[in-house]
Amino acid sequence: MIAQQIINAVSLGGVYALLALGLAIVFSIVGLINFAHGELMTLTGYVLLAALIAGVPFPAAVLLAVICAAVGAVAMERLAFRPMRGASVTSLLLTSFAVSGLLKVIFQNGVSARPQAVAIPNWMTGAFSIGDFTIGVGPAISIVVSIVALIALEFFLKRTVTGTAMRAAAEDFDVVRLMGIPANRIIATAFLLSGLLAGLAAMLWVASRASVDPLMGFTPVLKAFIAAVVGGLGSLPGAVAGGFLLGVIEVLLQATLPAAIAPYRDAIVLSGVIAVLLIRPQGLIPAVRVQRS
Amino acid sequence: MRHIRKRSALLTAISAITVATAAPAFAEEIIIGAATAQTGGLAPYDQPALAGLRMAIDELNAKGGLAGKYKVNLIIKDTRSDTAQTATVTQELIDAGAKIMITPCDADPSISAGQLTQPLGIPSLTLCGSAPVLTQAVGDVMFGTYPADNLQATAVADFAIAEGKRKVFLLTSPDATYVANLPEYFGKVFEKKGGKIVGRGTFTMNQPDFSAEITNIKGLAEQPDLIMTAAYEPDFPAFIQQLRGAGINIPVYGADAIGTPTIKALGKLVDGVVYTAAGYPEAGSKLEAFNAAFAKHAGHAPESTYEVNGYEIGLILDEAVKTAGSDDPKAIRDAIANLKDFEGITGKITYAGTDRMPLRPVVLMRYEDGEPKYVETVVPAAADVPAP
Question: Membrane-spanning residues where (chain A) (predicted)?
């Protein structure tokens, strides 16, 4: 039982971590909390749905959907955020809300207000047994994908020139530009990575929901925002820690609270968040440089 | 300034949305306000129901309007599935002169609309809101139209007992009246008839991680032979996906909100799921004829029984105005409240002697191989239906 709940917690935490990381990468470079991150997930879901309806095999459809999320993120930067570069944090924030709202309406009117069922292959809804307890294939995939994505990102940031430049840009963007690294490239890469992470998270999210709807991005981006703040806004390890912490708290409370108190779960979780921020105002693992907000 | 702009926007909206056909010059006009969700979580329910109502009004207007006399001007405003926004648009509709109000498919926004229409005595009908507390929470102007939650739950519970099910797990969410109460009504009837509730679980709507709850179900000392829930989209697909994913094959039963194309499209995942509907189009029935007429009118077949329910609201209003003999809201209200054995499309509808939640038949359906299959039509005994 307890082992099972731990697997549930890690699985949910992994998805939150991927999402929070996507927000944190962009924030660390351009100081923007991209609330349209959730709509990248929605986009991914609809691309997957369209590809499956068109008869594309499942693995290819997943690949296509994740690529579309990355392309969508770069396009978002190019169309909406680049013209706003250098604007105040508030303007950037409002721009991201505008993009988010616009995309929601496009999905609602262009596709349908009704959720659309996504045919998840049978093998993904199965379960396998190890010793005493059964592990769902879905949660197992979720955990593996999260861990692989986190390791790959770590490798990219530590071992490549662009990655190093991005880490440097998070600390002091002006100096990086003086070193001759083009700002556009750094920023575009940041959005590309955040799009990839949103795409992966969306696949895990959709696989456990079996449907996509125009508003599906709202809850996850809210969770990611909370996770990123708890972890330390702009800090990548912080976002991962925050994501896992949020997932673990949510699942463990849901598992252990008596039925009468269970409806207050979210209130308890958010009180916990406030408590963490009272003790560590900069988050669990603060960003190297305090952000220019 | 702002006020003026708002008013001109309102006029534009009225002229754009007015359902109008060529009107005889002498006809009087009656404004029906529809505060319904065109966007957001309730839209998949409100829209089909509204489509049915519009069809009824188009047909009635072609014959001169309600009671052949009062041409209907239907003004539709979007509530965005938001309770506060519902109150705002209801007020706008009242200001526009609505004498009858149509409210969304859920208790909470319908109550917020009813709080505005009750003091003015404007009869208000929810499209498919089915919580029996809904009419009591507002007062004598509020009417349900769809089979009430306690009625539906009784029908499903009777069926489960007859099948030999004895142990149930109830999954609820405190976030909406329907999702919170319907399984509890089921539980009351189920226990009274010899069943046992072996566990209860809750979830947060639109936040579909059910893993912890599912692990709790797995860990129950006494395993249920049935899970009863009123969860709907997008929570229901997520729940059943994760439940089956965890290797649990206990049957899941629900109510009317899962009789939708989205749930049907889940295919094998929802095999064996029992749910309710307001009617079933047997060969030669009035409902079959309605479905054909609707398909011709709307260009697509009805998605559910919400369409016919919306259509029946039009018929009920027509009958009520006939009885009232005027367009006075109070007289219309009294006429609806005294309706008895009115022949609708799905069967007889009675309001007289009820708390303004109609007595009408409930249809049980079951998904098999990705198709909805008819099980039976029942009218639960009034004594079995638990009090709201």
Answer: 12-33, 45-75, 87-107, 133-157, 186-208
